[in-house]
Amino acid sequence: MARNLVPFLVLLFWISICQAASIFQPISDSHRYAALELFRPTDGVFGSLEETYEVLRTFDILGIQEKPDINAATCKSVSEVLGSSAALKDLFYALNVNGVLKCEIKEEIYESITSRLRTVLNDARSLSEFYYSIGSLLLLKEQSSGVDLSLMDADGIFQSIKALSQSDGRWRYSSNNPESSTYAAGLALEALAGVVSLASSDIDQNMIGTVKNDILKLFDSIEKYDDGALYFEEKVVDAYEHHGPLATTSSVVRGLTAFTAVTSGSLNLPGDTIFGLAKFFLGIGVPGDAKDLFNQIDSLACLDTNRVSIPLILSLPATVLSLTKEDQLKVRVNTVLGSVAPRLTVKIVRAFLSGSKDTSVIEGEELKFDTQTSLHILEAFPKTFDVGNYVFVFEIILHDSEQMDIYATGGRIRVPIYVSGVVKIENAEIAVLDSDLGSIETQKKLDLVGESVVSLSANHLQKLRLLFQLATPQGHGFKPHQAFLKLRHESGVEHIFVVEGSGKQFEIILDFLGLVEKFFYLSGRYDIQLTVGDAVMENSFIRAIGHIDLDLPEAPEKAPRPPLQPVDPYTRYGPKAEISHIFRAPEKRPPKELSLTFLGLTFLPFLGFLIGLLRLGVNLKNFPTSTVPATFAFLFHLSIAAVILLYMFFWLKLDLFTTLKALGILGVFLVFVGHRTLSHLASTSAKLKSA
Amino acid sequence: MARSTSKDAQALFQSLRSAYTATPTTLKIIDLYVIYAVFTALIQVAYMAIVGSFPFNSFLSGVLSCIGTAVLAVCLRIQVNKENKEFKDLAPERAFADFVLCNLVLHLVIINFLG
């Protein structure tokens, strides 16, 4: 059960995130904190050079000043990589890191790397070789002054890269790999951009035009979320390195911006597409993974300065506004990285209560721009503006019409806004009515704002009536999400009733005659609790308003039993009640003295027996006198004593088997000596007789 | 009437005593032993009557030990008595050996049952 629930909860959570993120916030301080939290150096370095580059680039974009001090250790590994014949990828990232840290590298090293890269580029077959070598050459161009880096055979290289492209705008990693990939397309575009900027002479415009066409084809395969966010997804499942939507989209964005930056002429991409991409990156929020954070921030930085169109993000500092506190509607417009937008006006196209689309509350109103806070402010709501859930439709209008091509505003933006306020609660009263006549038995005023409590009593022939009025700040009737009356019996049985209302008036009448069965015939004290709550009601409350003593008739035999009250879940994990084992009660024993007395008494007959023997004049004259029979007779008595002793041990500690074994041996001996003794006695007596 | 009865009784006891005096000493010893065993059993029964029968097995083994040995002694007396022509061929020593053996077996069981 719980297992089935988890995906469902994740889905719910995801849906709630999606809805919450329908207004996107630009990059803010929370990203900076996340970056400082995610990127922590260990022993003065950030793992590999690739990771180091990602950290430095992220910090650079976010403008984080207090970077961890990693220069010494990192520059050491940068110069090690540059000085050796390391893999192309490592070389590329070492140069990237060097570009940020500006380590001291000798010109000769740059020269040797350049010649190595040129050789690699001439024999390059796979896309990654092109990408890393061209990328590295581009970085060398920025970092070294003395080396000549222009490409003579730029057209040839351009064509070799272009040869890897597919008809749908995607690219292959190498000529012998038929799988095409969107991620590779991003890499290829970046490499092509590098070739264009490194070329010693202009590249053939026709070829650039074809690549632009490829880009447009690539954008045909873009995916879309419900909230308008656009992204690329890698279709190849069995590629040796699979990339998620974030990494794929990020790669395409990098390639796109790099390519459009170095080529002239416009790309026929609609601004909304770029805006959708920005939505995708911002919709992620703050990623919990270092790689994701880099991809997000780096892509947004590319979008922030791209030549196709720069997205402008409309965000609201608060989407819950209090009518009572006279909050103002404030709107902020920034670029994705949070920098200032050009001069523009924000216009409320219309605003309407969610659920009633047809009646606009505000229509076509422009917001005033406050230069100090750079916020667009609606100074006052119209007079008739009331509490409720509204949907505001905004539009951004750029002042300079030429900028329309540079910026993407995302068209009309719908933002849900909650306008809350204090709802007036008036004329609350509670009364007990007589059922037949409807006459009022007791009536009490209720102060639902204060702390007053009432105490009432009623029997099953009476009714309970609760009345109150709700009114919005504008004096209109208000229907809250929740209006519940709860009666709770002493035993914990609860009954919840919905308080119905029309207009301002809310009323509930509980006829106890009809409710006795529902109340399980439970007489006694019921606590009354009233709940009135709504998202836009600032003074929502849940209040105990008193208690009522109910006198209900005795339950008939077949009446339903009240349900068992659920056990408090906390006690389930608390200490259990101690288990007391019930043993059979020990038998009554007599007092010790009595038992000892009787032990003594049992010796009395024995004493009497001995005395009797003496009186009879018993003697041992018959005991054999000669040595051998005397010995046997003695042994006979001794073995009898031994058997009795053995029995005593059996009683005290031995078990039956040990006893029987010992008895077997003793018995044989006893029979032997007994036979000898008794036969001797018999023969003696026989002799006496015959004599 | 009553006087004559008591006189008769006295006369009866007198004749019994004189007759018993003639009994051999060995038989008297056995009689004494039987009385001793029976009295011991009676004391245990009295104890049981006062404090109750718990533990019952111990009470039983105690009383049966006494009764059993008394019965065996009676058997010994029958066999040893020379008047009993039935056991004329049986040597008294053989009877005594039987008595000892039976007693040992009886008490093995008793001890086992004693608990």
Automatic annotation (TrEMBL), chain A:
Q: Which InterPro entries match?
A: Ribophorin_II_2nd, Ribophorin_II_3rd, Ribophorin_II_C, Ribophorin_II_N, Swp1
The Ribophorin II C-terminal domain extends over 583-683
Please name the pathway. Answer: Protein modification; protein glycosylation
> Where would I find the Ribophorin II N-terminal domain in this sequence?
27-303
Coiled-coil segments, which residues? none
Where does this polypeptide localize?
A: Endoplasmic reticulum membrane
Kindly indicate where the leader peptide sits in this chain. Answer: 1-20
Function, please? Subunit of the oligosaccharyl transferase (OST) complex that catalyzes the initial transfer of a defined glycan (Glc(3)Man(9)GlcNAc(2) in eukaryotes) from the lipid carrier dolichol-pyrophosphate to an asparagine residue within an Asn-X-Ser/Thr consensus motif in nascent polypeptide chains, the first step in protein N-glycosylation. N-glycosylation occurs cotranslationally and the complex associates with the Sec61 complex at the channel-forming translocon complex that mediates protein translocation across the endoplasmic reticulum (ER). All subunits are required for a maximal enzyme activity.
What family is this? Belongs to the SWP1 family.
What PANTHER family does this protein map onto? DOLICHYL-DIPHOSPHOOLIGOSACCHARIDE--PROTEIN GLYCOSYLTRANSFERASE SUBUNIT 2, RIBOPHORIN II
Protein name per Swiss-Prot or TrEMBL: Dolichyl-diphosphooligosaccharide--protein glycosyltransferase subunit 2
Organism whose genome encodes this protein: Citrullus colocynthis (colocynth)
The organism's taxonomic lineage, starting at the top: Eukaryota, Viridiplantae, Streptophyta, Embryophyta, Tracheophyta
TrEMBL record, chain B:
Residues annotated as transmembrane: 32-50, 56-76, 96-114
Principal localization reads endoplasmic reticulum
* Coiled-coil blocks: none
Keyword Iron-sulfur present in the record's keywords: the answer is no
Q: Does the keyword tRNA-binding apply?
A: no
Question: Which Pfam families would you find in this protein's record?
Answer: DAD
- Keywords, ordered alphabetically: Apoptosis, Endoplasmic reticulum, Membrane, Transmembrane, Transmembrane helix
Its record classes its membrane topology as:
Multi-pass membrane protein
Known pathway: Protein modification; protein glycosylation
Please indicate which superkingdom the organism of origin belongs to: Eukaryota
**Intracellular or extracellular location(s):** Endoplasmic reticulum membrane
Q: What does this protein do?
A: Subunit of the oligosaccharyl transferase (OST) complex that catalyzes the initial transfer of a defined glycan (Glc(3)Man(9)GlcNAc(2) in eukaryotes) from the lipid carrier dolichol-pyrophosphate to an asparagine residue within an Asn-X-Ser/Thr consensus motif in nascent polypeptide chains, the first step in protein N-glycosylation. N-glycosylation occurs cotranslationally and the complex associates with the Sec61 complex at the channel-forming translocon complex that mediates protein translocation across the endoplasmic reticulum (ER). All subunits are required for a maximal enzyme activity.
User: Which PANTHER family does this UniProt record tie to the protein?
Assistant: DOLICHYL-DIPHOSPHOOLIGOSACCHARIDE--PROTEIN GLYCOSYLTRANSFERASE SUBUNIT DAD1 (PTHR10705)
Q: How does the annotation summarize its subunit structure?
A: Component of the oligosaccharyltransferase (OST) complex.
Q: Please state which protein family the record places this protein in.
A: Belongs to the DAD/OST2 family.
Protein name, as recorded = Dolichyl-diphosphooligosaccharide--protein glycosyltransferase subunit DAD1
The organism that produces this protein has a lineage beginning with:
Eukaryota, Viridiplantae, Streptophyta, Embryophyta, Tracheophyta
